[in-house]
Design brief:
The chain is of the alpha/beta class and 335 residues long. It contains 14 helices and 12 strands. The longest helix has 21 residues.
């Protein structure tokens, strides 16, 4: 079974031979760590092919580098450490009077780079495209506190801006979905450690219809829909399933393996984060291996429905990353 088929079978509950390896690393500059990660993936091959999408910023490499820069959306970023995206410090829509003259960037500015990336990718692996965001883009442009106040106040400008962002994303999607990708990952972090950032009713009224438009575009092309959302987001998962979601990339340890299995087993494939808040960066190798085993055992018996999607950030040692992948290979065989 090749990697692409393995991922598809896992998503569609169709009996993959083993749990797919979706583990990945954040940006790493050339050097010993990058070389160690390359050796690690040679030993434990990934089942996904990373491809650059038009949704990525023009300054993608710069966005992971220490320093200050302004992206093509007009957002000024400050980054204190290589390998981690920094914080937006300057917001082009910090006052709503600027909205009338604000110009979104060309949605197809990266299309040729994306074509080359997809054309040159390993098509025996699953090609997952970055489909963009709504929530993140809003608070980058407006400011986090300001956008929360706008939701409470019911500002009409908020709906106008969301509409423009969605139209921008749809232009990208229609172009990119013709290039032979297998699925699209949308990403917005909607949870705190205990609950959603806004009321569920607000999410349904303001944001759900916009996500539905983007999901429908992907669904019409017969591609899988992935959604990444950090925090305790269990309350929106039923809505996302209703909207056509195939795969949820969530913090399994935060939400709970049992909760996810009992409520969504057989209905939703879980791309499981491997506790990048605690165990993966700060735990022992045996704790990492035990967590991976617990995740795998917690979702057994579904003929799929699980992808291991551990993130190797700059605070994760190579030894812990290797322990994660070793455990996937040891416990993840399904036939």
């Amino acid at each position: 079974m090749n990697p692409r088929d393995r991922v598809i079978k896992a998503i569609e509950f169709d009996g993959p031979d083993r749990i797919p390896n979706g583990c990945y690393n954040l940006a790493v500059p050339p050097g010993p760590r990058s070389e160690a990660l390359t050796r690690l993936y040679e030993k434990f091959p990934q089942d996904f092919a990373g491809v650059s999408g038009a949704a990525r910023t023009l300054n993608w490499a710069q966005s992971w580098s220490k320093g200050t820069f302004t992206d093509e959306w007009g957002v000024t970023w400050r980054n204190l450490q290589d390998g981690i995206i920094g914080q937006p410090m300057g917001h082009p829509l910090d006052d709503w009077y600027k909205l009338a003259d604000y110009q979104l960037p060309d949605p197809l500015v990266n299309i040729e780079e994306s074509r080359k990336s997809i054309s040159g990718a390993d098509h025996s692996k699953y090609l997952l495209l970055d489909g963009g965001s709504i929530w993140h883009r809003l608070h980058y442009l407006r400011g986090f506190k300001e956008i929360l106040l706008d939701i409470v106040a019911g500002r009409k400008e908020l709906l106008t801006l969301i509409g423009r962002i969605v139209d921008h994303n749809l232009v990208q999607l229609r172009s990119m979905l013709e290039l032979g990708v297998d699925g699209v990952m949308f990403g917005d972090d909607w949870g705190t450690q205990q609950r959603l950032m806004i009321k569920l009713e607000q999410w349904r009224r303001i944001f759900k219809p916009s996500y539905q438009k983007m999901f429908d575009e992907v669904r019409r092309r017969g591609k899988h829909i992935f959604f990444h959302s950090d925090g305790y987001v269990v309350d929106i998962l039923p809505d996302l399933i209703e909207m056509g979601l195939d795969v949820a990339n969530v913090q399994v340890s935060l939400i709970g393996i049992q909760t996810l299995r009992e409520r969504f087993g057989g209905k939703l494939c879980i791309a499981a984060d491997v506790d990048r808040q605690n165990v993966l960066p700060f735990g022992t190798q045996s704790q990492v291996r035990k967590l991976v085993k617990d995740i795998i055992q917690g979702f057994r018996g579904q003929d799929g429905g699980l992808i291991l999607y551990g993130e190797i950030g700059p605070d994760v040692s190579i030894t812990n990353a290797e322990s994660m992948l070793e455990a996937l290979w040891k416990y993840g065989t399904l036939v």
